Amino acid sequence: MICSLLCGATAFLDWMGIQVEFENSKVSHFCSASSVYLPLAAQIDIAALEDSIGYQFNNKGLLVQAFVHPSYSYHSGGCYQRLEFLGDAVLDYLVTSYLYSVYPKLKPGQLTDLRSACVNNISFANIAIHRSFYKFIISESSGLCKSMDKYVKFSRTHQLNGNVVEAPACPKALGVESCIGAILLDTGFNLNQVWKIMLSFLDPVINFSGLQLNPIRELQELCQAYNMEFEFASTEKENTYIVEAKVNGKDVSEYSSASNFSKKAAKRESAKQMILVLKELGFKPKSTRSLEEIMKFTYKRKRGASSSKVHPLGVGPHRSGGTEIESVRELPSLPDPLECQTTSGSFKKSAKSLLYEICAANNWDPPAFVCCKDEGENHLRKLTYRVIVKPDWLPKCFIDAMGRPARKKKVAEEHAAEGTIWHLKNHFL
């Protein structure tokens, strides 16, 4: 699906015996059928909503349908739920495709954690609030309006991190799934165009600033690492849930509790508190680095359309001796030596040393420095070095950069390393 997109996925399902009839005429039919929602257009400001989304709809009925709540009974055409179903699948696929393509070094469990941090009700609700989508929802439910107003007011005055007891439950209607589904249909299933719009929605989320992982998952892994058992017990009193987390193990018996109007939020908070208790007792995760730390240093490919086939180098390979290699070229050099920043100031670091660090950080093979030219005699002698780097996601390819001639081996290798770093910086990092 990453490489062959919709056509390849359809062909694969057909090969498995699952008949999938995807015709443009059927998409056009769905778009035309949405015209039954146009009588409701007078209830919302279409132009303002399109400005908030950043997309002009060809079929305005799809846009209206995306904001009709099931509680609205004055219209027999339906509501946003079918578009929500479609948009939820698209969001999950595009975010998964993005993470899989952009972070090739992360393990499946780490990718799952990142996807959970992106694709969840709170993230979508924050986007809907930021874009003021809640103002355009057509409904007849006074309870929904009150819960949305309460959540919007709270989110604008508090950071939604689960630490506040009074945090209200997140209304499911505060979301972007139906809007994404409507855009997908209106563009004729153009995933590239949908991705560009969705990226403007999710950009703060997929940058993982202030990354927060599921504390229940973290507690589970911590207890498994030390052969401890844990459980949650909940009670409800005056519309407030009290959740208690209990952990038992060898010489360990601890508990923590949290309360919230949302049972799920209370459970997450009690797990957070228990993790803090266990860490104070000396129970640390077996992994040497948390995912937050890994994200700071992990390799990240240059971002592009998540639904497009990935050509990370941006140049086509050519064959030489039966092996695919990247074009050998002389590249502009960086300042010599490189200046690197640290918390205590700056220091001088050679390009060769930095290249070795880059390869080590990404678990690549060390760079190979090869003398390709040895010209001149005695005091006129000049050496030209090339450096070869083999990223592990390109099993049959490698980066080959040639430096400028120099009289000293160290200087010649430095020039080649500078070119390689320049190439990595402009095409990878």
Automatic annotation (TrEMBL):
<dbReference type="GO" id="GO:0046872">
    <property type="term" value="F:metal ion binding"/>
</dbReference>
<keyword id="KW-0694">RNA-binding</keyword>
<dbReference type="InterPro" id="IPR000999">
    <property type="entry name" value="RNase_III_dom"/>
</dbReference>
<dbReference type="GO" id="GO:0005737">
    <property type="term" value="C:cytoplasm"/>
</dbReference>
<dbReference type="Pfam" id="PF00035">
    <property type="entry name" value="dsrm"/>
</dbReference>
<feature type="domain" description="RNase III">
    <location>
        <begin position="46"/>
        <end position="188"/>
    </location>
</feature>
<dbReference type="Pfam" id="PF14709">
    <property type="entry name" value="DND1_DSRM"/>
</dbReference>
<feature type="domain" description="DRBM">
    <location>
        <begin position="214"/>
        <end position="280"/>
    </location>
</feature>
<keyword id="KW-0479">Metal-binding</keyword>
<dbReference type="GO" id="GO:0003723">
    <property type="term" value="F:RNA binding"/>
</dbReference>
<dbReference type="GO" id="GO:0005634">
    <property type="term" value="C:nucleus"/>
</dbReference>
<keyword id="KW-0378">Hydrolase</keyword>
<protein>
    <submittedName>
        <fullName>Uncharacterized protein</fullName>
    </submittedName>
</protein>
<keyword id="KW-0460">Magnesium</keyword>
<keyword id="KW-0540">Nuclease</keyword>
<keyword id="KW-0255">Endonuclease</keyword>
<dbReference type="Pfam" id="PF00636">
    <property type="entry name" value="Ribonuclease_3"/>
</dbReference>
<dbReference type="InterPro" id="IPR036389">
    <property type="entry name" value="RNase_III_sf"/>
</dbReference>
<dbReference type="GO" id="GO:0004525">
    <property type="term" value="F:ribonuclease III activity"/>
</dbReference>
<dbReference type="InterPro" id="IPR014720">
    <property type="entry name" value="dsRBD_dom"/>
</dbReference>
<dbReference type="GO" id="GO:0030422">
    <property type="term" value="P:siRNA processing"/>
</dbReference>
